[in-house]
Structure formats: C-alpha cells, structure tokens
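Sanity check record (used in CI):
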Amino acid sequence: MKKDNKKENLVDKKGIDALEKISSSSYMIVLGNPLLNAKFDLTAFQMKIFYFLVLNTKQTAEGFSVTKVKVSEVSQFLKAKTSDYLYNLLEKESRKLMKKEIYLEDENSWKVANILSQIEYHKKEGAFSFLFPPMLSNYLLQLKKNFTYIDVRNLVSMDSIYAIRFYGFCKEFERFGKFQFTVNEMRKMFNLEKKYEMYGLFKQKVIIKAQEELIKNSDLIFTFKEVKEGKKVVSLQFKIEKNIAKSSQQLEIDDRNIVSILDDAPFEVIETITNPSALETIEEKLLEKLNAFSISQETISEWLEKYPVLQVELGVEYVLTEIKKDKSKIKNIPAYLSKIISSSQLMDRHQQVEEEKKVVKAMLKKNNEEKLHFEQQKQLQKEFLEEVYQEKRREVDKILNGHLTIYKKVLDVLAGSLYSSIYYDNYLTKVGTEISKETFLAFFRENTGFETIVITTLESFKDIDVFKEIQKKYKAQATKLGLSYY
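Expected output for Adenylate kinase:
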C-alpha cells in the first residue's frame, strides 16, 4: 500500500511539474510521448500550425474546448493586399490538416484519429476556430506521466518535418542522452514505407537533413552510428548533445532566424522596383547575367512586359543556380529559361514563404507579449508576498513580545513535528537551559529559518486568528494578482 501511495505521489509530482513548466513560459507545450512517436504524414508548416494550436490550448483543462485564432493577430503584420492570401493559406493548410490521420499504437491496442475534428471561420470576427478530437486529450491535457516538454522556439525556423520530429525525439530521450530506432521503425513513423527506399537516399533526405537543421536552429543536436547486419544498415544509434551555439538564452527569435525559412531556396530574392529607370537598370543587369547564353535584349524586354518583374528575376536566378549545379542537364537553356519564367510556381512559392514568415512573426509577437505579462505578474506577486510577509513578521513579533506563554505553545508544536523538530533543536542548542520568552524572541529576530517556521506555526492555530486583519487588508490586492493564499 505504501508503494502504491509513493507511486501516486510521484505521478502527482510529475503532473505538477508539467503544469509549472507550461505556466513558466509562453513558448512551452507538453506532449504525451506516444504522440511524438506516432505515425503521421504532415508538412513542416502543418506541424507548426499544430504546435501553434497546442500552444493556444489550455493544457490544464479536463477536455478540449474550441481554440480561436484571430487572423488579425497575424495580418496586422501584413499589408492589406496580402491579408486575403494569408486567410487562404491558413484555410488551405488547416483543411489539409483536418484530413490528416495520426496512428498511435502500444502493446495493448492501436488507434487512429484525425488531427483536427472541426474548423470554423468567423467572417465578422476574422478568426478561425479549431477543435482537437477527444482521442488526443490523453496526449495533450493534464499529463502526469510519460510526457515531454517542447519549447516551440526551437521549431519555428525549421523547414523539414523530419527535423521537427527528431527534435521531439531528442527532448523525449534527453535525460538518457541517447536513443535508438530501427530503419523500419523510422520509415513507419514518418510514413515513408514507399519513399526513399534506398537507405542512402533515406539517410541523406531524412537523417542528415534533420541533423543539419537541428545544428542550425535548436538547443539540442544529435550524432548517430549505424548498426549493420552484414552489409545492410538495420538500425541507428543516436547520441544527444547540447548545441553550444543555441543555448536556451539564445532562443529569442528575431528576423534573422525567421529568414532562415528561405535558406534552401535556390534563388536570390531581388527587390522589385517598377519605375521606368529602375526597369531599365533591371533589364541591363539581366542582360549582363544572361549574355553568355545568347539571350537577347528583346527577349528580356518581352519577359518584363509580359510577366511581373519579380517573376522574371526569380526565374533567372533559379535557372542560373541550376546551370551552376550541372549545366549538362539543361539541353536548351533559352527554352528552359522561357519555360521557368512563364510559370508562376516560383512566385507562388516565394509568396507562400513570405506569408509563413509573417505567420511565425505574429505567433512570436503574441507569445512574447504573453511572456512579458507573465513575468511582470510574477514580479508583482513576489513583491506583494514579500510585503505581506514583513507585515506578518511585525505582527508576530508584537504578539510574542506582549504574550507571556504563546511561545511555549509554538515550541510544543515544533518539538512534536518531525519536519520542524530541527528548528526546535537549533533553538535549544543556541539557548541551552535559558528557555524563556526573551531568548525565544531574540532567536526569532536573528534567524530567518526559525522566523518563517514560527509564522507558519502561528498561522495554523485555529483558536488564535493572528493574521485576520492582515488578510482583510490585502485580500483585494491578492485577488487582483491571482493569489488565493498569501
């Protein structure tokens, strides 16, 4: 029975730790480990939406309630003409997310749930409402065991879904310093049973890509060792390490971090100017860049008249990058250039990346504001509690000084408690046989630990309402600060 109680207390403590952790930082979420190891197929942006929704979900609740995300919180960072695109982006990606399934399995059962069960757009409010399915509550709400803390600041700049997932593994197994998966287990978790079938390609596109992004973006990184059966790699042993370049103090994300979303783009983004003299300058620069490929000025002028300037610039930079990688792959460079420039795909991608950056900025601004408010509130609470404590101390000093025998009652309580007997013994060691109101009061005034335990003991006396007036005096202020006990 004692073992059971001990286990329950440990679980309760872990639950309390989880609550304290998510309340201590506006960037922190808590996820059940089965969720981190589940099988699902999301893009990096969809995963960020999911984490953003978890971040805005009350994880201390007993059940899910609708999470409302205002588009205005994002679009205030955008120009008016781009707000419609942001709405379309959120609508498109969240609707895709709603159709995505997550597969969870343990030794007893398996279960499948959609990641979202409901989406609603409020036209008058300019807000989306989301609802998680009840099945996910065991992995997101009131977690007391088998969970992992995630600081989302480590994830917002990652472009690869595999990097985001490997960061989750690193956090889950951080206390052990290592973890191991078979190649087949990873293929299953990442829904890659029929993709990257050659191990070398899987290693490059998944493992190495994740490793590089964690080094660049997160506070944890990993190295790995291949385990073979004959010549075949069957599993990987991962070692978790702290990223010296990215401590927790360095995770305040600024524009430079967010720009990293574009780091894998094979082109340079050139600022577009539309006045005539600027267009002539752009035409001259493009002609200079393309001179070696027999592209005439007339062709460039035709492109600039027919397509947006940025679309032409992006197309040229993309093709030049491809030529630099391997010129032999492009049989007809002028024809390839015309084909790429005529397509709007690079423009669409560029615009989507820009919108994703702004979504992330909006999320971070909101989180920073919440964090600042939380820290200010904590400081006010600290100052308030110190003021109340000093008031109590003065009141106790007055009571002890004016009462002949109350100190004896306090000593009896201290002597009879295993926890507080150490304070009783310290007092006796100090005063020896000179137990009196005067020595008690002197020890109270010079010893902070003794002072605190005496105040706590007097608070517990039901027949002596020592602090009634103090509580009455500070009640309104305590309520305003969210303190139910002071």
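The longest strand covers residues 232-242. If this sentence no longer matches the regenerated tokens, the check is flagged for review.
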